[in-house]
Amino acid sequence: MTKFDRLLRPKSVAVVGGSWGRSVIEQLQRINYAGDIWPVHPVKSEISGLPCFDSIEALPSAPDACFIGVNRHVTLDVVRALSTRGAGGAVCFASGFSEAAAEDQQSAKLQQELLACAGNMPIIGPNCYGFINYLDGVLLWPDLHGGQRVDRGVALITQSSNIAISLTMQQRALPIAYVLTAGNQAQISIAELGMAALEDARVTALGLHIEGFGDIRAFEALAQKAAESGKGIVAVKAGRSQQSRQAMISHTNSLSGSDASSDALLQRLGVARVDSLPTLLEALKLLHVFGNLGGNTIASMSCSGGEAGLMADAAVHRPLEYMTLSDARRDELREALGPMVALANPLDYHTYIWNQLPAMTATFTAMLKEGADLSFLVIDFPDQELPGGESWMVAIEALVAAKKRTKSAVAIVASLPENVPYSVARQLLSEGIPSLYGIEEAMDATVAASFVGKSITQLSSAPVVLAEACAGKYETLTEYQSKQLLRQAGLDVPASSVISTDADATSAALKIGYPVVLKVVGEAHKTEHDGIVLDIRDEPALLSAAERLFVSSNQLLVESFCSDAVAELLIGIVRESSGLLTLTIGAGGVLTEMLRDTKCLLLPASDDDIACAINELKIAALLHGYRNKPAANLTAVVRQISLLCNWAVQHANRLQEVEVNPLLCLHDRAIVADALINMGQTP
Prior knowledge:
Oligomer: single chain
CATH topology of the largest domain: Rossmann fold
Structural class: alpha/beta
Number of domains: 4
Number of strands: 31
Number of helices: 23
CATH architecture of the largest domain: 3-Layer(aba) Sandwich
CATH class of the largest domain: Alpha Beta
């Protein structure tokens, strides 16, 4: 038994409030709630035919759950009374708490008072609609909803009550077990609501709409719980459209943007991130029916070459793979389809066999026997009022028969979402065949379900680093200072010397050995500001470069020059406001902004994580040796990045950001060519 059992599955419900209270009672009656309903109102004698109690103290007993639909100030008194009485929990509908803090200075204080009034009693909200439990037929919900009772289904959790309403109205044959709104997450977070939903064996998967993470440790626990129960999580995370952060000293900030850590966190937790509510619902449909897909191989069948082409194109830029037909499958398909059909995957089976149940069944069976992780039948139904639509049901009958013969995972896909009758979708769902609405959404949903299936077996047990910000003043170290710190951490840093005269320059160059690099000290972006001269091979060239650079700086850095780099990488680590340390790996040097080719991870990151991120870059081909060119020493590259990560973790509470750009990737080593660090001063 969890602390939310009484609240989410109550045997008695108190409803406080006038018009909003009436709405909740009407919704309880509509869903045929079997428990006691106790309206609470100080002056009304009855609401919706039920006798009223004038206070919480007057109730027959402590209610298991209570909907509070009064203003924010009265809400505090009601919550205090419920907590004192020993109620099981409450939904706080009122707004004007922390979400209004920017406009009302009193709001944040009121939220703290709300928490104090609640004590140990669970409260959902404030500023939310509450929840609907379609499994047990109970809700604390003051508005319309479009769901119906189910025996099992997915749980949907969002901070937005309006989005929650919209999700209940879906007509996509997705069984919904719970709809839970979190509001301000004053006491109960999205992650905690997710844990409560996963505790219910009847919940098959979890869908989240996230505006802010709140307690990251709670999300880690949620991910672990999901992995242990074999239930996948799919999320829409708001924030992709926000402008990237204003760069501080590095390229890392402008490249990673404000959303990078969210992406990295969800990926680390094994939560599939999707970009739209339709894709969220389609992915949850796959998880509900099949659980987590075992892989990313797919097959497609359609009676149109145009549809086959659309399906083929939809997989091109996604991590999905069409299986090659084996000789055995080709023989079976040839026998079913005759000599006029080209055999391929995606398969255009033409209309030769349309409305022929045996031939269609044989064709679909042969394709499903190939063993793809998920197969599709592309089919758009005509308006049900039009004559001749019964022939489409022959294809459905054949698909159901083929699934029963092969026990394979198969779904239908409509190229247009409106072209699947709800009755057909419901019928197919009962046969274990989900109906997917839209080709692009179907493909994205498959990617999500495949990602969850892969990640759930590889979930990292290492908690992410959460570092508090330094209380002192931050300072930007010079390149020389930054490199000295990294040298002490074990990174491969070229020999260098800070000089302030021509004589110092020539002496340092002789000691280091030509060729050398001459750089302006204290300039963050040297190439853009013409503050660097490369590949200086003799003293005259050195003095000429020094004369030009001394105009803009009284100190220069002389450094050993490394040529013949296979590729250049940017390696940056930023401490987010949340305390997360985000590692960015990308194309470096002068190509940084041009290519914007990056991957982000959260620390700690293993060597395998780092290597995988590097291999996902567009410039990975260069690192592996492009067109018979020498390959970079990737072991050395990963080692340098790992050392930088270890150093960042050790200095997490002082670090603001560190960037190595470029990390020169040579065939035998990896060298820190430039570095900048912004960190708090030592107390």
